[in-house]
Amino acid sequence: MRNLSKVLAVLMAVVMLVSAFAGCAKKGDSEEGKTYIIYSDNSFAPFEFLDESSNSYIGIDMEILAAIAEDQGFKYEMHNEGFDASMGAVQSGQADAMIAGMTITDERKETYDFADGYYDDGQILVVKKDSKIASEADLKGKSVAIKISTMGAEYAESIKDKIGFTTSSYEGSPEMYQAVATGTADACFEDRSVVQYAIVNEKLDLKTVGEVINPSQYGFAVKKGTNAELIEMFNKGLANIKANGKYDEILAKYGG
């Protein structure tokens, strides 16, 4: 009887050990199968914009992320909610990351961790096609439209007192462009590649003035101190799609 008890005790210990390993394996499988929540802008062509024919979001950011995810083998769920909403979602932990034509700056690095920059751009002054505004100095006494939380907005706010103009805020780029085109505002500051794409493809009654301001890079961002594995995968995938030609293929598709 005593031997039977010992046998039963050993068997019980083996069962518990097997269960523990099974539990660990199950947890590991769940981690490997994680689906990342990624936010983006909803109207920032050619980086992200709604394709009405398919009712889905397309653009440089959308395709770069898809190519990197395929290369690195991770899953994600995209939410195109707007630039300001994307920043808030990452900061609050509602999103794991964002890709939305977001300029990498030292100030933003205090809140976000960035992957390697994936696109070079900068801001530029935009006015109506028949405007006589030829430089920032001509903005004195004028009204400048800005898109909330963007580098264009930050730049406009940094020089408005020195030059002497007022600002009005808009949620999206289309609304900001419309304000300038209709004369509600005299000018705006926008990322060069974005507004030039809009002028050509949407036939906007606008033009750019002067040179690019604050040349910089766009970056894929996560909340500071989180999702280090996602940053690592993005960097590896970005390097791979640049090496195999997929990156250049994506840019060429959208005139980049």
Short description:
The protein has 256 residues and is α/β, with parallel strands linked by helices. The protein has helices at residues 2-32, 60-72, 83-92, 151-163, 173-182, 192-201, 228-243, 246-253; strands spanning 35-40, 49-51, 56-58, 75-80, 97-98, 112-114, 119-128, 143-147, 166-170, 187-191, 206-218, 221-223.
Largest sheet: 5 strands, mixed
Just give the CATH class of the largest domain. Answer: Alpha Beta
Number of helices: 8
Measured distance between first and last alpha carbons: 81 Å
Shape: globular
CATH topology of the largest domain: D-Maltodextrin-Binding Protein, domain 2
SSE arrangement, N to C = HEEEHEHEEEEHEHEHEEHH
The CATH homologous superfamily name of the largest domain equals Periplasmic binding protein-like II
Largest sheet strand order: 9-8-10-7-11
Total domains: 2
- What level of helicity do the residues show? 40-55%
Give the low-confidence spans.
Answer: 1-30
User: Strand tally, please?
Assistant: 12
Give the mean pLDDT.
89
What portion of the residues fall into strands of 2 or more residues? 25-35%
As an assembly, this protein is single chain
Radius of gyration over alpha carbons? 25 Å
CATH architecture classification of the largest domain? 3-Layer(aba) Sandwich
Which structural class should the secondary elements be placed in?
A: alpha/beta
